[in-house]
Specification:
This protein has 136 residues and is α/β, with parallel strands linked by helices. It has a 5-stranded mixed β-sheet with strand order 3-2-1-4-7, with helices on both faces. A two-stranded antiparallel ribbon has the order 5-6. Strand 2 and strand 3 form a beta hairpin. Helix 1 runs parallel beside helix 3. The chain is globular, with a radius of gyration of 14 Å.
Length: 136
């Protein structure tokens, strides 16, 4: 199964941001991609990174450093959809992206993992990609 490390970042929140992913097969990097946005939030970039990865790959292990993404897609989304995309405090933020991610997940075999960011681990490879893109 492919391992795909996804990350997003912003310079300011909101502010200019970037998303990126790095794909590994049997421990060897085989692909990467990134993009930038001029006015966004960190959470949006975390979601976009994951969406972009899943647009290109089917059966994979998605590794994120964002509890927002991991817990949102594996746990919270069930209740959000049941409640019409509302929480006790109001409307779920980034519904447009959560709906895209949910649709992509429906047709794929995905294993979800969280890995601490900025911890001298494999996830740092995508963090470096994204942070350099933000500076562009």
């Amino acid at each position: 199964m492919l391992k795909i490390y996804c990350d997003g970042a912003c310079s300011g929140n909101p502010g200019p941001g970037a998303w990126g992913y790095v794909v590994f097969e049997n421990g060897v990097q085989i692909a990467h991609a990134y993009g930038i946005e001029t006015d966004t939030t960190n959470n949006r970039m975390e979601l976009v990174a994951t969406i972009k990865a899943l647009e290109g790959f089917n059966d994979c292990n998605i590794i994120v450093d964002s509890r927002y993404v991991k817990d949102g897609i594996t746990n919270w989304i069930i209740k959000w959809k049941k409640n019409g995309w509302k929480t006790a405090s109001g409307k779920v933020k980034n519904v447009d992206l959560w709906e895209q991610l949910d649709e992509l997940c429906a047709s794929r075999n995905i294993k979800w993992d969280w890995e601490k960011g900025h911890a001298n681990n494999t996830h740092d490879c995508v963090d470096i990609l994204v942070r350099s893109a933000v500076l562009k």
